[in-house]
Every structure is written in C-alpha cells, then in structure tokens.
Amino acid sequence: MNGVAQWIVLALALVCPTACVQAQTFPTGPISIVVPLAPGDAADISARAMGEEISRLLNTPVLVVNRPGGGGTLGAYSVVQSAKNGHTILFAQNSALTFRAVLDPQSVPYDALRDLVPLGIASRTPSVLVVRSDAPFKTFAELIEYAKKKPGQVRIGHPGTGSVGDFCVQLISTLTGAELVPVPYPGAGPTIAALRGEHIEGIVSSLGALSTHIKAGTFRGIVTSNRVPEFANIPTMRELGYQDELFGIWFSFLAPAGTPEDARKVLVGAIEQAVKEPAITARLAPLSIFQSYAGPEQTAAEIREEFRRVSTMARKTGLVK
Predict the structure, then answer these.
(1) What is the reported pTM?
(2) Do the Cβ atoms of 92 and 251 come closer than 8 Å?
(3) Which residues pair with 65 in a beta bridge?
(4) DSSP-assigned states of every residue in 242-300
(5) Which residues touch 216 (CB under 8 Å, ≥6 apart)?
(6) Is 143 helix (H, G, I), strand (E, B) or coil?
(7) What crossing angle do the helices spanning 207-215 and 42-58 adopt, rounded to 10°?
(8) Which CATH number among 2.120.10.30, 3.10.100.10, 3.40.190.150, 3.30.1220.10 corresponds to the domain 30-125+249-316?
(9) How far apart are CA 113 and CA 118, in angstroms?
(10) Integer Cα distance of 121 and 106 in angstroms
C-alpha cells in the first residue's frame, strides 16, 4: 500500500466511526405508536398497517399501543408527557387535536400545536351515520321523523365525548330539531357491539370502521360527510337540503414538543414513504380509509384551520357560547 492510500485509509478510519454513529442515533430501540382509541377503530387499523411498513423501513420494532378515553385526549396527553426522544409518537384523529378543545376546552390538558409537533397527516375517511338494517327507519328523514315523535329516546353512539362523531350527533340534533341522545364509547369497536346488541339506535363514526358492516348488510348508512363511489347511495347533509355538512375524519402522526430534529426528520421520511406505499393504499382503500399524505407544515396549517371552522360552526349552532 503506497503512502497516499495509507493516508486515505487512516482518514476514513477517523471519520467513519463518527459519521456512522451520527447516522444511527435514531432509532435506538422500539418505537411505540399510541392510538387514543380502542382496537377496531379506523385509526387503529390505519396505524397498524403503517406501523408494519415503518418498522420495515427503519429496521426496528414498532408497537401500536391503544390508550382510549376522553375522546382521544388521554392517549394524546400520555404522548405529551412521554420522553422526548422520538420513540413514542401519537397517531391521532382530528378530534383529539381540535374538536374536544372547542367543545370542552377545560378537559384538554394540552395545546395541540404547543405541546405536540406534527409529523404528517396519513389517512382520511368520511364520517357516517349508520343504523341497524332491521331498524324501523330506513332513511335519514325517517330517523329524524321517528326521533321527533320520541324525543330523548333515540340514542346515537360515538367514539367518545368531544370526538368528531359526538360533534356530528349534536350538529344533526341542532340542524334538524330532533333530540338525539349522544352516547359516548371508547372507540368504534364498542359502539359497533352496542348497536348490534340493540343498546343504541345508531352510530356516528368513521366509514373506515363501519364499511365492512355496511357491506355485510348488518348496518345501513343513511348520511355521510363525503360521497364515496362505493357507497354512492349514502347522501350528504347538503344533498338532503341542509346548509351544513358533517365533518370528516383524518389521522396524523405527532411527536412530543422538544423531540430532537434529527429524530423528527427520520420519522417524517419513514411516515411519508409508508403513506405512499401502494401496498398499504391497496390494503386500506377497501375499508374506505384513504391514504392522503400532508407534511408537517401542512398538518399544522390544517389543525389551525379546522379549529377555526369547528369553533365557527359550534358558535353558529349554539353548541358553545
């Protein structure tokens, strides 16, 4: 080996260990994705699909941890309080970031854009109101007529106080004059069991969680936030003659504020690749969970805009003063 080659080898030996250590500083162990809803919800389904891909991309175990309660706030707050090292992140529905903060601000012990850092929006799915297929009401108009004849007796389940579903139930009551009774559950799974067991008369939740039951003929969708070609027979509120629409649902990844930038960059890159992975898109689309990536800045902007829209709607309809 000549002198020049020796100097090159020596230089690489001095530089490479430092570079290699820097390249491997994150992740240094398993990553936990906290889903603040019960298993079976669209958020849970989506998180598990993407968790597998993120695990493959980062070559590290990824665990999905369900922490339901408080309309998503309990799980979200647990992430706010977790170690700020990127190994615990949140996969939250928009209600945990905006809706509950509008409807019941004192019950939300964090600020979505102060205490959490957006990593990206991953998935979207419409909201839908379903009833049992054997219910005495087959359409939205028939449900409202039935509820007006029996005020306070038509119970509509949703995935937690302050959830998108909760807001939509109250919005429907306000817009129609029907006295629907919102009944909170810790996620879509328990609401489905309650409707099947005839403990409630309907559910407002994500189409992603309810689509298989609609397809099976167990439940009937009667109004939705957004038209989906596969369920073209389910109308929106405006199509039924109302001025306002129900809100849809979206899911985003977030990390605790203070998470190091290098860890965030690694996570953002892996999340974007996972969201755009065709195999995952094909896996979730039949469930009416649609992959739709938005980066950190776009996610922060959407959180701010939805907070504004929900606040405006809540004041307009009298849900808050």
Answers:
(1) 0.83
(2) yes
(3) 34
(4) -S-----EEEEEEEETT--HHHHHHHHHHHHHHHT-HHHHHHHGGGT-EEEEE-HHHHH
(5) none
(6) helix
(7) 110
(8) 3.40.190.150
(9) 8
(10) 26
Q: Which residues contact 19 (CB under 8 A, 6 or more apart)?
A: none
The fold of 127-240 is D-Maltodextrin-Binding Protein; domain 2 (3.40.190)
First-to-last C-alpha distance (Å) of the chain: 81
- The DSSP bridge partners found for residue 203 are 130, 157
pLDDT tens-digit series, residues 45-96? 999 999 999 999 999 999 999 998 887 899 999 999 999 999 999 999 998 9
| C-alpha–C-alpha distance, residues 316 and 318, integer Å | 6
Can you tell me the distance from the alpha carbon of 24 to that of 118, in angstroms, rounded to the nearest whole number? 23
Provide the β-strand partners of residue 128.
Answer: 205, 224
Q: What span, in angstroms and rounded, lies between the C-alpha atoms of 66 and 43?
A: 10
Q: For 258-302, what is each residue's pLDDT tens digit?
A: 999 999 999 999 999 999 999 999 999 998 999 999 999 999 999
For CATH 3.40.190.10, list the domain ranges present in the chain. 127-240
* Token pair 């989506």 in the structure block, residue: 46
